[in-house]
Amino acid sequence: MTAPQPKSGILDIEAYVGGSSTVAGVDRVIKLSSNEGALGPSPRAVEAYRALADDIHRYPDGHATRLREALAERWGLEAGNIVCGNGSDDVLQLLTHAYCGPGDEVLYSEHGFLVYPIAAKACGATPVTAPETDLTTSVDALLARVTERTRIVFVANPNNPTGTYIPSEQLRRLQAGLPEHVLLVIDAAYAEFVDANDYEDGAALVRAHSNVVMTRTFSKIFGLGAVRLGWAYCPPAIADVLNRIRGPFNVSAPALAAGEAALADRAFFDLVRQHNLYWRAWLADRLVTLGLEVAPSATNFLLVKFPDARAADAFLRARGIIVRAVASYGLPDYLRITIGREDEVRAVAEALKELVGG
Ligand SMILES: Cc1ncc(COP(=O)(O)O)c(C=O)c1O
């Protein structure tokens, strides 16, 4: 007798490792390793979360109706075409499970988000990568790797961990070049941070085509990573598919309450966005002045090249500053640094000055 065996492909998965949050021997760390909101969640979201405490014996609204309506109003979408998930990871996994199986290919770019190959392998599908140009998604390289087995193309725009984005015209070229049966998933987890007038989040493409989905999250600009809340904007047929396979209560009541309140707090959203734009530019400028190479970022983090990234990581950790090593993304010479509060950004700039200067 043998022990139960998982489906083929599952044991090839390297489990996702999140950004660490502790350093041995250091009490107060500066955590810049997970692209969490620099200023935390909106106080109104925290209040809504707390207000729910006496009701946690009640099941949540399994249709996330109020949140979907609020999202639809905020971003000009149709509520019926929105499907919410337990983080956007949940919707990325659901999409892969619904559309891919053994023998199918899931295509994404070289330094794309690690959840894509994990989701592909979990379904027995084969992850396929396309090289990037200057740490940026290459539409030509992706299109060149589409085969009759390709089922999904994932594009994080902007991308994590590179921070770069492709402009609207490139995204549209990608969609136009894909066969109709290939699903294009535009993962716009960092859309709210982009400050470029040639960018689009993908919603208009979803509305115009039956093979495009856009995913979004409350974990980044809204600072709600702990409650796990994300969503997909889909063509009706794809929303229908996701609603059939998702967990019936895949979004918790605290997540729904916090999400609705966060969405309503426009002033806090604007504050976080402005904070990020200012300190992202400030930090990039400092690091470039130190002679470090910084990838152009449209997100709430910077990808920085070091002569010895491991040594730089150790140097920062010894000072209680945790950033993200990205060797697992094929970027062994880089560290990814999240834009935090002002004191945190200043601290990392100071430490790197000491490292480079010393
Ligand atoms: C590109 C990208 N997509 C999706 C996610 C998942 O976000 P969540 O599951 O917290 O919504 C992340 C988080 O780091 C990300 O960087």
Key phrases:
358 residues; alpha/beta; seven-stranded mixed β-sheet; four-stranded antiparallel β-sheet; 12 helices; globular; binds pyridoxal-5'-phosphate
Based on CA inertia axes, which overall geometry fits? globular
Uncertain runs: none
Strand sequence of the main sheet, in spatial order?
A: 2-8-7-6-5-3-4
Largest sheet: 7 strands, mixed
Helix tally equals: 12
Q: Into which percentage range does the β-strand content fall?
A: 15-25%
| Share of residues in helices | 25-40%
> Which structural class fits the helix and strand makeup?
alpha/beta
Count all strands and give the number: 13
Task: Please trace the helix and strand order, writing H or E for each element.
Answer: EHHEHEHEHEHEHEEHHHEEHEEEH
**Cα gyration radius (Å):** 20 Å
Termini separation comes to 61 Å
Which small-molecule ligands are present, each listed once?
pyridoxal-5'-phosphate
For the residues shown, what is the average pLDDT? Answer: 96
Could you walk me through the main structural features you see in this protein, from its secondary elements to its overall organization?
By secondary structure, this protein is of the alpha/beta class. It has twelve helices and 13 strands. It has helices at residues 43-51, 65-75, 88-99, 115-122, 139-144, 168-177, 203-208, 236-245, 253-264, 266-289, 309-318, 342-357; strands at 30-31, 82-85, 105-109, 126-130, 150-156, 183-187, 212-217, 230-233, 293-294, 301-305, 321-322, 324-325, 334-338. A seven-stranded mixed beta sheet has the order 2-8-7-6-5-3-4, sandwiched between helices. The protein has a four-stranded antiparallel beta sheet with strand order 9-10-13-12, with helices on one face. Strands 1-11 form a two-stranded parallel ribbon. Strand 3 (105-109), helix 4 (115-122) and strand 4 form a beta-alpha-beta unit. The longest helix is centred in the last third of the chain and has 24 residues, at 266-289. The protein starts with 29 loop residues before the first strand and ends with a helix. 47% of the residues are buried. Bound molecules: pyridoxal-5'-phosphate. Pyridoxal-5'-phosphate binds next to helix 3.
